[in-house]
Amino acid sequence: MKNIIVGIDFSLGSMNAMKHAVSMAIRLKTDLTLLYSLTPDAKLIEETNITLRSNILSIAEKKLMELAEYCQKHIHHTKVKHKIRVGKAAKEIAAEAKEQGRALVVVGTHGTSGFEEFFIGSTAMRIISSTEFPVLTVRDTVNIHRDLTDIVIIIDSSRETLQKVKIAALLSKAFQAKVHIVGVYTSKYRDLRDLVDAYVNKAEIYFNERDIRLESTIIESDKDPRRIIEISEGIKANLIISMKETDLYGDDPFSLTSFSQKLVNRSSIPVLSVNVDTSIFR
């Protein structure tokens, strides 16, 4: 990982995400990019509104420069830059991450719950589903210590579940954080439960070989992430790592009823969504 890209829209959520990104950049010794996306609007591109559009870009540039200077005061060994792209946020952040390569994307999210969750599209989820790189989502209301101390990693029976172990170890070593493995039984079938046990054991071996502090637990869970969130809150975790496409249920990551969507929307703890590398199965 060599770059961190944080989506900026000047909301409280994106400011909180930026502060988390600064903490990550310091510990991981990576460059940081503050990215603002100006969404095209028919009214703004009309000839009569060219001045208005120019003013918006000018104001955004000035604010981004101020934020970049603020971040650079805290990040001493790597570079902070700012950039404006024209287009929808999810598409432009994904494009920027692809251009930079080996990136971590950090975005703020307002979070939703209940009835509105089925009808409101989430920009954060669009970003998660648009990029191949891991995405850290941070709630706008979260007031959590930004130096990671406790990381929760979800292990289920899916064949790709162990792919998130490597990034968990990277973050744990960088922050000297403790890892909490939560093995999840989602079926009564013995074979699937045995798979969870085997994957948890493999993860434990991986972390132990790297002298990472570790705790493990196995739980029963349904399609609601509340049990995971309750456990994470109980141990005062400040990061949950989940596979963004197939953890637990193999749902479409952009389905508004998917586990990934619910976890991102409902968790007050930042969630790191890791993409599945399907190439290893070919």
How does this structure look, described?
By secondary structure, the protein is an alpha/beta fold. The chain folds into 2 domains: 3-139, Rossmann fold (3-Layer(aba) Sandwich); 150-281, HUPs (Rossmann fold, 3-Layer(aba) Sandwich), CATH 3.40.50. It has 9 helices and 10 strands. The chain has a 10-stranded mixed β-sheet, sandwiched between helices. The longest helix is centred in the first third of the chain and has 25 residues, at 50-74. The radius of gyration is 19 Å and the shape is globular. It starts with a strand and ends in an 8-residue tail after the last strand. The relative contact order is 0.15.
The helicity comes to 40-55%
Discrete helix count: 9
Biggest sheet: strands, sense, closure?
10 strands, mixed
Distance between the termini: 24 Å
Radius of gyration: 19 Å
Strand order of the largest sheet: 3-2-1-4-5-10-9-6-7-8
CATH superfamily of the largest domain: HUPs
On the 0 to 100 scale, the average pLDDT is 84
Write down the overall geometry.
globular
Q: How would you classify the helix and strand content by structural class?
A: alpha/beta
Order of helices and strands: EHEHHEHEHEEHEHEHEHE
Q: Kindly identify the CATH topology of the largest domain.
A: Rossmann fold
Low-confidence stretches: 113-121, 246-256, 278-282
Strand content: 15-25%
Q: Into how many domains do the coordinates divide? A: 2
Gross CATH architecture of the largest domain: 3-Layer(aba) Sandwich
Short description:
The chain is of the alpha/beta class and 282 residues long. The protein has helices spanning 12-28, 42-45, 50-74, 89-100, 123-130, 165-175, 190-209, 226-234, 259-266; strands spanning 3-7, 31-38, 80-86, 103-109, 135-139, 150-155, 178-185, 214-220, 239-243, 271-274. The chain has nine helices and ten strands.
